[in-house]
Amino acid sequence: MTTPLPTMIRLDRASGTALRTQLYLQLRDAILSGRLPSGTRLPSTRDLAEELDVSRNTALDAFTQLTSEGYLEGHVGDGTYVSRELPDDLLRSSVVAHARTEELAKPTEGEARTLMPVGVADYRGKPRPFRTSTPALDAFPYATWSRLMTRRWKLSARELLTYGDPAGYAPLREATAAYLGATRGVRCTPEQLILTNGSQHALAIAASVLLDRGNEVWMEDPGFLGARAVFSAAGASLVPVPVDDDGLDVDAGIERAPHARLAYVTPSHQYPLGPTLSLRRRLALLQWAARSGAWIVEDDYDSEFRYSGRPLPALQGIDAADRVIYVGTFSKVLFPSIRTGYIVAPPQLVPALLAARALSGHPAPALDHAVLCDFIAGGHFARHIHKMRVVYAQRQRALVSAAARELAGLIELAPSEAGMHLIGWLPPGVDDQLATNAALANGVEVTPLSAYCLEPRSRGALRLGYTGYGAKQLWEGARRLAVALR
Predict the structure, then answer these.
(1) Which residues of the chain form CATH 3.90.1150.10?
(2) Spelled out in words, what is the top-level CATH class assigned to the domain 162-364?
(3) What is the pLDDT of residue 444?
C-alpha cells in the first residue's frame, strides 16, 4: 500500500530554500527517522506533485537525488520504494542519539614521533602534467579578485591589519557556514566554524585535541598521506582499513579496531581511488562512532567538482550524535596560496578546538579573508565553481581520449564522475614507483598508488591530475608518459 506521503511534507514557499531541496530534506529525514520504513512504496512523482501543488520536476529532482544516494530504489513497472538495504537498527535516530560526549579528549602530548612525508610529489616549480591538486589557474577571474582587493584596501584596510579573532574573520565564517549549509547539507552555525590555514592545518588542530599517544585511528587504505602524517605525529596507532567500490569497509574497521578513537574518511570522493561512501556504510560508520564514543573526521577536500548530478551531501549532515568533525578547504577550489581551510566542530568541541587554533598561530590576514568573503557574497564564487565544473569535465575527457590513443596497452584509465585526478592502472607486474621515476625522467609528473598504501596492493597504478592543464598539454603529457612506460 502506498504511504500517504503528502501528510508528512510541509513546504514553506516563503523560505529562501528551493522547494525541491525542502522536499528532498524532509523525505530523507523521514527515512532516517523511521517514519518511512524500508520497503515503503512511495506515490508517483506526478501524484506527489499534484498533492503538494508543485511542478513534477520538483518531485522528480528530489526522488532522483534520493535514489542516487541509496535512500530510494525503483522497481521497473512497480514504482519507487524506500531502499530495502537499510536495516531498521541503522535508521532509528535513537540508536545514535543516546551516545554523547562524556569527556572531551585530552590534549595530545604533542610529540612528533615520525618522519612520514606529508605528500608524495614535489610541488616546487611550474606545474607539469600530470601534477595533482593543481586548479585551473589559467581560468581564475583575476580581474574580479583584483578589483575586490583594491576596494578593500581603500575602504577598510586599516581595521583589517590587526591580529583579529582566533576563529577567523567573522563575516567569512558566516558566509562559509551559509555556503556549506546550502550546497553540502552541513548543519552548523558560524560559531561552530573555525578558519584554518588550509585543510592540513585543520587536521593538525583536530589531532591535537582528539588524540593521545597510542590511540587507534582508522585510516582509509590507500589514503591521504597528509592525514597519515598528522595522526602519526600525534602518537596515534594507524589502523589500515581497506577501500572498495563502496568506500571505507566499515565492517573491516570494526573487526580490526572496534575501540578506535577516531576514523578519518573522505566519503564524498575517496582519496585517492575515488569511490563514494555508500549510504549503508555511512549509517554504519555513524552508528559505530555513536556506540563506541569515537570521532569521525570527514575531509571534504574536492566535493564541489562533481560532473554528473548534484554534489552529494556531507556525512556531517546526517550525524545525529555530533560525532563528526567536518574539514574543508578553499585552496583546491580557488588557488593553493590562499591557504584558507575550515573546521566545522560539534558544539561540545568548539572551545577545545578554538584554544588549539589559537595556540597554533594567528589566522591568515583578515584582509585576504575579507576579499574572499566579498568574492562569495558577490556571487563570484558560485559562478567560478560552475565554470570550473565545465572546464574540468572537458579536461578530464581530453585526458581520457589522449590515454585511449597514446597509452593503449600501457595503462587502464577510465573516466570519473568527480574529482581532480584519475587513477591509471598499470599492467600486472609493473612497479608503479619505477614507472613514476621513468615518467619524471621524461618530463611527466605522476604519483604511484603504492605511496598511499599502508598495506601492499597486488597491482600498481599511477595518479594523474588533469585540472591544471589544457587539452594540448594533456595530449603531450600522454605521449611523454607512453614513451616512459614503454
Answers:
(1) 382-485
(2) alpha beta
(3) 94
Amino acid letter, 291: R
**Spatial separation of the C-alpha atoms in residues 272 and 52, rounded to whole Å:** 42
Would you state the pLDDT for residue 480? 96
Give the residue carrying C-alpha cell 595522526.
231
Which position has the grid cell 582566533?
166
**For 262, left (φ over 0), alpha (ψ -120 to 50), or beta?**
beta
The single residue listed with the C-alpha cell 511534507 is 9
The C-alpha cell that represents 18 in the structure block: 528551493
Cell of 38: 524500508
Contact 272, 463 (CB under 8 A): yes
CA separation, residue 215 to residues 16, 210, 235, 263, 452 (Å): 44, 9, 7, 11, 21
Cα-flanking dihedrals φ and ψ of residue 215, to 5°? -60, 140
Please, what are the averages of pLDDT over each run of 10 residues along the chain (486 residues)?
A: 68 82 87 86 89 89 83 82 68 42 42 46 72 91 95 79 81 95 93 94 95 96 94 95 97 98 96 94 97 97 80 89 96 88 96 91 79 95 94 96 96 92 96 94 94 93 95 96 95
Check: CB of residue 468 under 8 Å from CB of residue 137: yes
Architecture of domain 382-485: Alpha-Beta Complex (3.90)
Q: Distance (Å, rounded) from C-alpha 280 to C-alpha 302? A: 22
Residues in the chain: 486
Whole-number pLDDT of residue 21: 84
Q: Identify the bridge partners of residue 462 per DSSP, sorted by sequence position.
A: 424, 448
Q: What is the largest CA-CA distance in the chain?
A: 67
Detail the DSSP E strand segments found in 245-377. 247-248, 262-265, 295-299, 324-329, 341-344
Per-residue pLDDT at 150? 93
Taking residue 174's Cβ as centre, other Cβ atoms within 10 Å add up to: 17
CATH number corresponding to 5-86:
1.10.10.10
User: Where does the chain hold its CATH 3.40.640.10 domain(s)?
Assistant: 162-364
**Which residues, including other chains, have CB under 8 Å from residue 31's CB and lie 6 or more apart?**
66, 71, 82, 86, 91
What distance in Å separates the CA atoms of residue 175 and residue 183, rounded to the nearest whole number? 12
